[in-house]
Specification:
This protein has 19 helices and 13 strands. It has helices at about 5-10, 25-30, 40-50, 65-75, 165-180, 195-205, 215-230, 230-235, 255-265, 285-300, 310-315, 320-330, 350-355, 370-385, 405-415, 420-440, 465-470, 475, 480-504, and strands spanning about 55-60, 75-80, 100-110, 120-135, 135-150, 150-160, 185-190, 190-195, 240-250, 275-280, 305-310, 335-340, 360-365. The strands form 2 sheets. It has a 7-stranded mixed sheet with strand order 8-7-10-11-12-9-13, with helices on both faces. A hairpin with a 2-residue loop joins strand 5 (about 135-150) and strand 6.
Length: about 500
């Protein structure tokens, strides 16, 4: 029984213009405008027909980005318009001819809105043919974005004289991309990505900038160095070569800068250790899949540093058992040093915070005492004065007058402050001084000193005998705009702290 053709059956096929100079592109074009079948099958058949004497290898650019490998300086690549001859710019293009490559012109905005750059344009290759040279071998490379209507994948079709020549190139490219270059691997939104920005921020972090109790700092540095240098010792003792460390304590007291300093130190030659940074466990496949992916990558990259910042917010009750199974499981975690940080140790499950062989050492980052606060003020003094820091009593010239005597004085009035709060006091004071200079034609006024009725003695209890000295010298210190503003800003921040404590 014959049936009437449906509307779809009766619809005319799309118009196909004349053939292009590239039969491979013809196949791609007709496949893209017809009812879809496998793009790989169509192009592989066309390539084998057109290049019967060459070996064809198909690979995903996700794992072996050959164009990126060339862009990094490891190979040479030249775009080609046709498979048999260079393009001619003298013959006019027929109105019905098919172009032999396909590119999207894309606009990339500047990284920041206030940048002097207006952005730039780049080509996104959807279909391109290239002559590719690497290690004395010459290849033909087709890069094609295609697939099914719901998902387009970028695929490389590599033609060479032998399968071995193709395998050698792909292996070299994969090995190159397997290791970050001026980047740090970050797990976020369900997949691993390479972050150059995080790498840049880590480069400026050193242990010299970390202000901690000297014994605690030496213990942390020694713990890390001993671990990565003791593989044979662990092997001889027949114990797993893995460790875990937790940094805990109130926010703003050096946990993050200590992690960054550790990452920077480990990245240095001659034996750099990679860092894997976990930002979230959010994933379309669920946090369990994320945890599995994280530890699989860590085992592949080992020896490595695996960082879980804000551990208590990452390892929730839902994923706790799965996380512990990955830490304790059957698969080897040799060479993995885990570092987790938390502002709330009490929120971590006892199985994480109290059991050895998971997180073996815990370091408390408390509110800084008087010596640490004074050292932090000296750090700010060095940063502001730069090379003009030879004289201990110097600092009377330049944009901000910052004599050494102010370090102890400021440390004396910031008892109970975290480093983050002291930093905010410095930033707010420096901004106020700059605004005051602008308003007064480059000068400052002394009327901004605090009301003398405000009592500070209770805030200086740590200083001991120095508290009376600071009070006696207060009038002399008030000639420095930085001291006057610091007193004002500290008072404001202290009131915020007291209000916060009352709410709790």
């Amino acid at each position: 029984m014959r049936t009437q053709p449906s509307a779809i059956d009766a619809a005319p096929l799309p118009f196909h213009p004349a053939k292009s100079a590239d039969p491979i592109y013809d196949s791609f074009y007709h496949n893209s405008t017809a009812p879809r079948i496998s793009t790989n099958t169509v192009l592989a058949s066309a390539l084998r027909k057109h290049y019967p004497d060459l070996h064809l290898t198909i690979t995903s650019t996700y794992s072996s980005d050959l164009l990126g490998f060339a862009a990094a300086g490891h190979a040479f690549v030249t775009p080609c318009s046709t498979p048999d001859e260079p393009p001619s710019h003298h013959e006019p293009l027929s109105p019905t001819a098919i172009p032999s490559d396909l590119r999207w012109r894309r606009y990339i905005p500047p990284a920041k809105r206030d940048s002097s750059s207006s952005g730039y344009l780049v080509d996104s290759v959807k279909f391109g043919r290239f002559t590719y040279t690497w290690s004395s071998h010459t290849y033909i490379l087709y890069n094609v974005v295609g697939g099914h209507a719901s998902f387009d994948e970028e695929v490389s079709y590599l033609l060479s004289s032998s399968a071995q020549a193709s395998d050698d190139l792909i292996l070299a490219a994969c090995a190159f991309w397997n290791h970050p270059h001026d980047e740090i691997l970050v797990f976020d939104r369900g997949y691993w990505q390479k972050s150059h920005k995080l790498w840049e921020s880590v480069q400026s972090s050193t242990w010299d900038d970390v202000i901690l109790d000297p014994q605690m700092k030496a213990s942390i540095i020694g713990e890390v160095n001993k671990f990565f240098g003791s593989q044979e010792r662990y092997k001889k003792l027949k114990v797993p070569w893995k460790r875990g460390i937790i940094y805990y304590g109130p926010p703003g007291n050096g946990k993050t800068i200590s992690i960054k300093a550790m990452m920077h130190t480990l990245s240095l030659p001659p034996s750099p250790i990679p860092t894997l940074y976990v930002r979230s466990l959010t994933s379309i496949a669920g946090p369990e899949y994320a945890i599995s992916s994280i530890f699989a990558q860590a085992r592949q990259q080992s020896p490595c540093l695996l960082v879980f910042e804000d551990l208590d917010s990452l390892v929730t009750d839902r994923v706790r058992s799965y996380f512990l199974n990955e830490v304790d499981g059957l698969e080897s975690n040799d060479g993995i040093l885990m570092v987790g940080s938390t502002n709330h140790l009490e929120r971590l499950d006892k199985g994480i915070r109290n059991r050895p062989s998971r997180f073996d050492r815990k370091y408390l980052f408390p509110e800084p005492g008087m010596p640490e606060r004074e050292a932090y003020c000296a750090f700010w003094r060095r940063k502001l004065l730069g090379d003009r820091d030879d004289d201990d009593e110097g600092g009377g010239e330049g944009e901000v007058e910052f004599p050494a005597v102010l370090c102890r004085a400021i440390a004396g009035i910031t008892g109970g402050f975290s480093f983050a709060y002291i930093q905010e006091a410095f930033v707010a004071s420096l901004l106020a001084i700059a605004e005051e200079k602008d308003d007064n034609g480059g000068g400052t006024k002394e009327s901004d000193a605090l009301d003398p009725s405000y009592e500070w003695e209770g805030r200086w209890s740590e200083v001991g005998g120095a508290s009376r000295w600071i009070r006696d010298e207060d009038r002399d210190l008030d000639r420095f705009p930085l001291w006057r503003q610091m007193k004002k800003q500290v008072r404001i921040l202290r009131e915020e702290l007291d209000d916060g404590e009352e709410e709790v």
